Structure formats: structure tokens, C-alpha cells
Amino acid sequence: MISQILPSIRAIVVLTVLTGVLYPLGITAVSQVALSKEANGSLVSKDGKLVGSELLAQKFESPKYFRPRPSAADFGTVASGASNQGFTSAKLRDAVNERRAAIGKNAPSDLLYASGSGLDPHISPEAANYQAAGVAQARGISPDVVNALVAKSIEAPQLGFLGQPRVNVLLLNQALDELK
After folding, report:
1. Which residues on neighbouring strands pair with residue 158, listed in sequence order?
2. Nearest 5°: phi and psi at 169?
3. Less Cβ crowding at N or C end of the chain, within 10 Å?
4. Which tens digit of pLDDT belongs to each residue from 94-153?
5. In whole angstroms, what is the distance from residue 49 CA to residue 46 CA?
6. Which residue ranges make up each domain of the chain?
């Protein structure tokens, strides 16, 4: 009986060390060397102060800033997630109609419907262009300047074919703040 237990204990210890210690440490080391910024959360700082992450949407309510997609979780990371309301939901229809009344009846859908996680940091170029004139007016700058900044902020699909072109709202708003 002991001849069967000792090899089992040795196997558990060896596998625990390999898969629970060495593998995670190895992956962490490789990610820190190869993709340090991404491995550390793609953090964005301004004047040495942390302002957010490129990976998480933030609430921007001032008309001087572009707004992200709506969030069912009010942009909270602890309670992130979708509302689980389908297209036949009266509650979803009311929320979209309320947003449409506030934003405009021709607003792109990504300004009306929340993302699956409620934390999507990107909007479509159409949604950014839709907001550009209002942001320019609120800041008292030329719409051409804001439109050029939006065009410069468009990210291509990953690897050239995965997903759609998109605009990171936090980075776009940071670029707006850096305008002189």
C-alpha cells in the first residue's frame, strides 16, 4: 500500500511545482519581456498620474469629451457584465429610446447599446465622427481639428482582418487634452 502512496505523493508534488509554480513564473517572465505594457494592464498616465487603462472604458460625461459605449454596469469593473436584456425587452427598448433622445435619433448603434462586458473601451469611427462636432463646439476649436484627430486615432482590425476599425475613447480624449 505504501508503495502506491509514495509515488502518488511525489507525482502531486512534482506536478504542483511544474504547473503551479514554474509554468506561471515562466509565462510571467516571458510576458514581461515580450509584452510588458500589455502584461501590466496597458495603463495610461498623464503628468505622472494614472488616468486609466487602454483596456477599460471610463465614464466621460463632459461635452468636451467623446463618450464611450453605454455600460450596463455603470463602468464598474466589479459588477461588469451585460444587462442580459434581449431585443424584445421593454426595458432595453426604453433605455435605447432614452439614449436616442439624449444623443440624437441618427446616432450609431454603438452609442445606443451597451457592450457585452459594459467596459468596452472602443467605439466605431462612425460613433466618434458623430460626436466630433459637439466636442469641437464644447471646446471652442475647429471641427476640422477634431475630425483630423479622430481620423488619426482609428485603429485597424487586429492582424489586418480580425474585427472592425475602432477608436479607443480614452486615448482619443487624452489626445484632445494635449491639443494646445
Report:
1. 162
2. -65, -45
3. C
4. 989 999 999 998 999 999 988 777 788 999 999 999 999 999 999 999 999 999 999 999
5. 5
6. 2-37, 42-178
What pTM value is reported for the model?
Answer: 0.79
Enter the C-alpha cell of residue 95: 433605455
**Nearest of 49, 48, 50, 28 to residue 39 by alpha carbon:** 28
Contacts of 67 (CB under 8 A, 6+ apart): 60, 61, 111, 131, 169
Report how far apart, in Å, the C-alpha atoms of 95 and of each of 20, 66, 83, 85, 89 are.
Answer: 46, 20, 11, 11, 10
User: 54 is written with which cell numbers?
Assistant: 487602454
In angstroms, the CA 145 to CA 151 distance is: 10
Q: Please, are residues 73 and 79 in contact by the beta-carbon 8 Å criterion?
A: yes
Is the CA virtual torsion 52, 54, 60, 66 positive or negative?
positive
